[in-house]
Amino acid sequence: MKKLFYIVSAALLLASCNFLDFDESSSQYDREGMYKTYSNIQKMLTNIYGYMPNKDIYDVSSALRSCGSDDAEYADPDASVQRFTNGNWSALSTVDDKWTLYNGIRSANEFIESIQTVDLSMYQYDTKYQRWLEHLQYYPYQARVLRAYFFFELARRYGDIAMPLKMLTAEEANSIEKTPFDEVIEFIVSECDECAAKLPSTYVGLLDDEIGRVTNGFALAVKTKALLYAASPLHNTNGDKQKWQRAALAAKEIMDLNQYSLDPAEKANNYLSPEVILAICRSESQSLEKNNFPVRFTEGQRTSMGGSFPSQSLVDAFQTAVGYDITLGSNGWVTSDPDFDITKPYEGRDPRFARAILANGMAFKGSTIETFVGGKDYSATRADLGTVTGYYLRRYIQESTSFAPEASVTNKHQWIVYRYAEAILTFAEAANEALDDPTDASLGMSALDALNLIRANAGMPDVKATSKEAFREAVRREWRVEFAFEDHRFWDIRRWQIASSVMTQLDGVEIVKNGSSFTYSRKVVESRTWADKMYLYPIPQSETFNNSNLTQNPGWSL
Questions:
Q1: pLDDT at 225 over 90
Q2: Rounded-to-integer distance, Cα 519 and Cα 514, Å
Q3: Which residue among 109, 205, 432, 444 is buried most deeply as judged by most CB within 10 Å?
Q4: What pLDDT is attached to residue 63?
Q5: How much is the pLDDT for 427?
Q6: Nearest to residue 366, comparing CAs of 422, 297, 313?
Q7: Higher-pLDDT residue of 126, 497
Q8: pTM (2 decimals)?
């Protein structure tokens, strides 16, 4: 059995320090003492991993961040994730600010500085000494890639950010200036390039067969992701094609490693998939299923409004199995597919549909989902504790979880941080934007061929789009359906700057049963508010009060 490297609490050893508060007096060791034994050094590195975003799958209160996009709606109207869609957030009332990542950055800086002088030679006659040295040679590079990843997570929220590369005094922390976004990206690229050359491709067969540590593949993935965001319209206002080409070539570098392969099976909760580059493994829990199972399967355990429910626009993004569009209009389902049975609209779809979404008539836990009016899984109001859109979440759900008295079943979950398909889609998008022709293979492969690799793996027919604009829409659809509920859409609509057209209203479906047939109607679930200032997060006002150099992002000043 391979050993899982489980992410532990960021407060494992040190009290969780504010970015401006460096009191470590609560630790049982002083700084020098923490690096006297291999065991403590390992714990210090594990502490940095503990700051990884999405480590609990839910990342905004108890909701998926997708509920802050046009992909889903959260059941509780007062949940903090709703502020992304109603505009009720500010520098004084932030959402998902992730300022705690600066604690992770500080921990990384401390680790990177301290490990340079580690000397364990006093243990040279210990039988484990050589193995410790093998471990330690990779530790600084893991810490540096994690730090680069934390900088990326902050930059995609805030744009220009403070970028401390050493441990700061309180005075330094209160005066540090912002680093421009493009410079942050360049630092991430250089760090990841250097570290990728030093890191292994896997720890299986090495370092106790641990799973979940930073590899050379993840280092290149962080670099690729950073370059993709730098090339996207939000940060590439003049459409610089060179930025797109750099993103494409970075993605191709991952592809050329030949370390990963597309997997036709489900990747969620499957850290052993050959497609997964990094996944975070979580301990056993029922919380995801408690909030997202159709309520009748929770055996009375869900007593409050919860659940991330897919939208009709997400459902409409999934084509028929032979590649035709299908949408729910004012007069029912519309498609040009001559063989599609519109009386069974959730059958004969892109196979990825059933992996992401539970819909009326689908099998689940030995039963049939009934979201039609009056059905077992229908909700007339949010207070009914069921779906508000007519659909339920399927991705990441462990169907075998059970809340039955005396027969409870709890499962482990793994959150995918990065998988190989993302590199391929990054190449497809970036190559098209760089070359203006999706059939141009001058970067080693055409954008069209790359996109169709993803389609073929999903069992879908090739895209035929040969114009830049048509291909752009095709690849954006592919991002949406391939990575539904994997924390992409929220960020994609921002980097593409399309939120003003997709974040004004969220729709669901109302299904009425007429004997053995059904009538489907599109319904408005929620009117939403969007302002362009929301393309970037507001910097917490408390931080700008402490440090006047942390100037507020446009539109968020009090």
A1: yes
A2: 7
A3: 432
A4: 84
A5: 98
A6: 297
A7: 497
A8: 0.93
Q: What does the alpha-carbon distance between residue 134 and residue 138 come to, in Å, rounded to a whole number?
A: 8
Q: At 115, which amino acid appears?
A: I
Residue keyed to tokens 């590439």: 236
Q: Which helix (H) or strand (E) holds 421?
A: helix 420-435
161: which DSSP letter? E
Class of 215-282+413-487 in CATH: mainly alpha
Query: How much is the pLDDT for 24?
Result: 41
Do residues 150 and 157 make contact, with C-beta atoms less than 8 angstroms apart? Answer: no
Q: Which residues are paired to 328 by β-bridges?
A: 333
Region 3-59+96-210: CATH code: 1.25.40.890
Q: For the chain, where do the domains classified as CATH 1.25.40.900 start and end? A: 215-282+413-487
**CA 337, CA 326: separation in Å to the nearest integer?**
8
Q: What is the mean pLDDT of residues 9-33?
A: 44
Tell me the chain's radius of gyration from C-alpha atoms.
24
**Three-state SS for 532?**
helix
CA dist list (Å): 362 to 75, 343, 346, 366, 373: 21, 14, 8, 10, 16
CA 374 vs. chain centroid, Å, equals 35
